[in-house]
Design brief:
Elements lengths: L3 H11 L4 H7 L6 H5 L8 H10 L4 H4 L12 H25 L4 H11 L7 H4 L3 E4 L9 E5 L4 H6 L4 H8 L4 H17 L3 E11 L3 E15 L5 E9 L5
Antiparallel strand pairs: 1-2, 1-5, 3-4, 4-5
Length: about 240
């Protein structure tokens, strides 16, 4: 299935509209849309809607759902058609969630509906990181799982919990302590905690970089009763 970013790029090219022109029409810097639809870009649903509006289309039309449905007098045939449509919408929605990073509100809504249990988690899993709750005297985070599209994975170039542990071991001790304390606080409160963070990284494999982002820590647990801290981050002021 062609991803949404590719479809938007192809549609813009077919209609003779440059990405920089789209950026200007949605009120952003000239390279904004190009960055969002690039290989490492992650357009939000709001971005997709704005771009579709400029291209005189809708997200539904973009992914192949027609706005009108013709029903027949045969109710059984109608029911079958509606079931097929419902199935298609469900698959498209799941793929869209996997491709596009969720909003903070969506993450919070998921947590509230699930009461912190890691159910209906497959689509979100690509975008978050799970940590074991830090032990009382431990001043560094303990990775359990890292999503391949999470900001943590992109920024630190880590594809597994083991790789993340290795990268974290080379970070500033004060930064690690702050992260561990935030995990302890999340566990103690039993409620999501959202903050705006700014970090400066200096890692040989990555180089020197500065990141400002929104971080949400959420206390979660699996069906076996194991507790974790789930971290979701959204960059501010540019791509991660």
């Amino acid at each position: 299935m062609t991803d949404i970013k590719t479809k938007l790029r192809e549609l813009a090219e077919n209609r003779g509209v440059s990405l920089s022109n789209i950026s200007e029409k949605i009120g952003c810097r000239s390279g904004y849309v190009s960055d969002k639809l690039g290989k490492r870009g992650s357009p939000s649903f709001e971005d997709v809607c704005k771009i579709c509006n400029v291209l005189n289309t809708t997200p539904n039309e973009l992914i192949g759902i027609r706005s009108s449905i013709t029903l027949k007098s045969d109710q059984s045939e109608n029911n079958e058609k509606l079931r097929d449509i419902e199935k298609k919408i469900g698959l498209i929605a799941e793929n869209a969630i996997r491709e596009l990073p969720p909003t903070i509100d969506q993450i919070m809504h998921w947590w509230w509906c699930q009461r912190g249990e890691l159910g209906n988690f497959d689509a979100l899993a690509h975008h978050v990181t799970l940590f074991h709750p830090p032990e009382e005297n431990l001043s560094r985070p303990l990775p359990h799982f890292i999503g391949r599209k999470s900001i943590t994975s992109k920024v630190l170039n880590a594809k597994s919990s083991n790789e993340l542990s290795q990268v974290l071991s080379r970070l500033n001790s004060e930064l690690l302590k702050e992260i561990a304390i935030s995990h302890k606080e999340t566990k103690t409160r039993g409620q999501p905690i959202a903050t705006i963070q700014n970090i400066q990284l200096d890692i040989p494999e990555i180089g020197q970089r500065n990141y400002t982002y929104t971080r949400v820590n959420l206390p979660v647990h699996d069906t076996a009763g194991n507790n974790y801290v789930m971290t979701y981050c959204r960059p501010l002021g540019g791509e991660a």
